[in-house]
Amino acid sequence: MSHANPNAIRKIVIVGGGSAGWITAAMLSHYFQNGGCQVELVESEEIGTIGVGESTIPPFLQLIASLGIDERAFIQATQASFKLGIRFEDWKLKGQHYYHPFGAIGGPIGPHEFYQCWLRAKANGHPSELQDFAPGTVMADQWKFMLPFRAQRSLISGASYALHVDARLVAKFLRDFAEARGVKRTEGIVTDVVTRPDGAVAKVVMKDGREVEGDLFIDCSGFRALLIGKTLNAPFDDWSDMLLCDRAVVVQTQNVGDPHPFTLSRAEDAGWRWRIPLQHRAGNGYVFSSRHLGDDEARATLVRNLQGPALMEPMFIPFKTGVRRRLWDKNVVAVGLAGGFIEPLESTALHLIYRGVDFLLRFFPDRDFDPTLAAEYNRRMVADYEEIRDFIVLHYCTTQRDDTPFWRDVRQAPIPESLKERMALFQAHGVLREGVDEMFRNPSWQSIMEGMGVRPRRYQQLVDTAPYAVIAQTLDQSKPMLAAEVAGLPSHGQFLAQNCPAP
Ligand code: FAD
Description:
Elements: E1 11-15, H1 19-31, E2 38-43, H2 59-66, H3 71-77, E3 81-83, E4 85-89, E5 97-101, H4 114-123, H5 135-141, E6 162-164, H6 167-180, E7 184-187, E8 190-195, E9 201-206, E10 211-213, E11 216-219, H7 226-231, E12 236-238, E13 247-253, E14 263-268, E15 271-277, E16 282-288, H8 295-304, E17 315-318, E18 322-324, E19 328-329, E20 332-334, E21 340-341, H9 349-362, H10 371-397, H11 405-412, H12 417-429, H13 442-451, H14 468-487, H15 492-499
Parallel strand pairs: 1-2, 1-11, 2-7, 4-14, 11-20
Antiparallel strand pairs: 3-6, 4-5, 8-9, 9-10, 12-18, 13-16, 13-17, 14-15, 15-16, 18-21, 19-20
Bound molecules: flavin-adenine dinucleotide.
Flavin-adenine dinucleotide is lined by residues 16-21, 42-44, 47-50, 52-56, 167, 189-190, 220-222, 224, 226, 248, 250, 285, 317, 319, 336-338, 344, 347, 349-350.
């Protein structure tokens, strides 16, 4: 007896070949490698891609692993470097900095969460800083690197890492991967989208008259949002009142000196500036509010602070912060910038692409397009976007800066109710709501809160059941132990040269 579903999706069309298009194509080609569904990707070299998604978070490596790609080969091919977290400068106040490391901060003491024990120690006057116990931070601060899993039985094994990547090389790598697994690539500009009587998309029409038909369409056309926006008009939740930046100027530079194993984010007069060192060059950008700063000044600030010779003319990218409430509408699923965007402060966009395709595969429809699948998909994905929005707003709404009109306006900007609730719970007891689906774990929220000067009014009372001497002794021993372990590691530059040299 055959189980084949006569209604199964037979053809998927991906419109767009930026990071979103090729990540989607790679994941689908891996999934359908034994046939069953044809995948065609349409892109236009003339239009080009945005090409700036360079900083990632640890689950990006899960994506690579889930495709069966060797991590080291990927690093070499994409000239990637390692990222242990983000260093934030001048965010709370000018002259101050803090880290958001990946991975653990300390380890549980008995049954108690490390953070709660540390809070109790602080209440007792202990001199340590929270980040003294974060292996990611201690390594990042000394520009050292070691793969955490190679450091078994060591405090370093609690760290986690992600990559800094060259977006164009990633797209090329994944294109080769997808094409080798049967994805058909079609070059050309889509000029028209034809819909069926029920409003779903039937086909896209190219400038030269060619037509590409499909059952399911993935809109990876970037900010143009050809299908989900221009054709289906899916409503967009605009969050630009909560996050004031709406423009970026970016430039690539030659590398000078050793690469730092973290993304640098430095708050500026009207936004923030990043520096991301790869193996062969560095990426730089200034994300700013066009209401508070003109293009000439933004470019001048970026260029003035570059650390190496520029490899291109600075390029401006306007953006709108928010998300489509229906990322999946009829037979169209928007992945990447077509679906929504939140400024790249925590490097989450590439991850959202992975999540978007992962959820699509979990809720994969047939040609009936049961609306309950789309509804659940939209609920899960919008929850991700909202969580990221809240996490990014946290970096702004806790600032103590009031030295420019931008920072004064930031302090007046509305705060989402969900973030207010999260902060109230945290400030009362240091407790965070952590669910299985949450993207950022407790140490991430704790790092930003502590870095921005938000400390709970008291620790959780259960921690009083632990003898204080045990807590103090653990802190007193682990800080110098971790520092000594890190001191013996290779620098990030040495590690890259020894383990992942350019081919
Ligand atoms: P695009 O790269 O714009 O690709 C769109 C594709 O659609 C292109 O192939 C284009 O040719 C095609 N297309 C469009 N119209 C047509 C048409 N009519 N016919 C045919 N083809 C068409 N993300 C991170 O994870 N980390 C970061 O550090 C990071 N930094 C960022 C910094 C800035 C300033 C910005 C704006 C974004 C950043 N992002 C970052 C986000 C990241 O760049 C994007 O999420 C990612 O590149 C995906 O883009 P995309 O593929 O959706 O769009």
